[in-house]
Design goal:
Length: 260
């Protein structure tokens, strides 16, 4: 097997607070291969987002090791190894959709022509061609989140880290965006790390599902999905899908059981 794109070994992170230490992650070991779609699922406060933030060099681990593309997360960030999509779209209301997507490209010093070409390409990728001159307030919540994904894709990072990007959206919009995200992943071959609270979302999207326990966050199960790469929405009614969902639910229950 090739070297993993992301590799964590006995990773721990303890936050020091006024009320004493908070153990967010404890002895987390995980390998993510190139082209994997990995979902992280667990109860609130289990360290899912913290783990993603460690990968992105937004948090510093206090124990263990982690590499991204064979180097530290800090070095990977300097080489623009990943794009990051937050829970809220985080678009600047005074900039057009095109202007929001261009922002990281401007900061990185891309030429005007290169910026224009990349904005056009990523808007097509997320099915927002023709919306470049619109402002965020003129778009629905789902469209704003797609623009946020386009911004993370604009500089063509190999890794896409997504922190509950569809959590605030209604189920119908969420289903549609899940389908679009799978199509985008298939088209681009990106490696995706995806935080979610939704069991159906995790099972539908992922090649690998990482089930985490309540704080301190530990990995209680890593499930390799048996589902085919082509996944219409109605795959969620199949016995294979329901079997994986059941295993995720059991893993979540087992994680809680450790604390009883």
């Amino acid at each position: 097997m090739t070297n993993p794109v992301i590799s964590a070994e006995n990773l721990s992170l303890t936050f020091q607070t006024n009320d004493g230490p908070v153990h967010a992650l404890k002895d987390v070991s995980l390998d993510i291969q190139k082209g994997d779609f990995v979902s992280f699922i667990g109860p609130s406060g289990c360290g899912k987002t913290t783990f993603l933030r460690v990968m992105a060099d937004l948090e510093e681990p206090t124990g263990g090791t982690i590499t991204v593309n064979g180097v530290s997360p800090h070095e990977a960030r300097l080489t623009r190894a990943y794009g990051y999509v937050f829970q809220a779209a985080g678009l600047y209301p005074w900039r057009t959709i095109g202007g929001n997507i261009r922002l990281p490209l401007e900061i990185m010093g891309y030429s005007k022509a290169d910026q224009a070409e990349r904005v056009t390409r990523v808007l097509e990728l997320v099915d927002l061609a023709g919306f470049e001159k619109k402002f965020p307030w003129q778009l629905s919540g789902g469209m704003q989140q797609r623009a946020s994904i386009a911004r993370a894709l604009a500089f063509d990072a190999e890794i896409l880290l997504m922190d509950e990007p569809f959590g605030a959206l209604d189920e119908i919009v969420r289903d549609h965006l899940n389908e679009q995200l799978l199509a985008l992943w298939d088209k681009t071959g990106k490696t995706i790390g995806f935080v979610t609270h939704s069991i159906p979302e995790a099972v539908y999207l992922s090649t690998k599902i990482v089930v985490m326990s309540p704080r301190p966050g530990r990995v209680t199960d890593v499930i390799e999905s048996p589902l085919p790469r082509e996944r219409p929405l109605d795959i969620r009614d199949t016995p294979e899908f329901l079997e994986v969902a059941h295993r995720v639910r059991e893993g979540l229950r087992a994680g809680h059981g450790d604390d009883l």
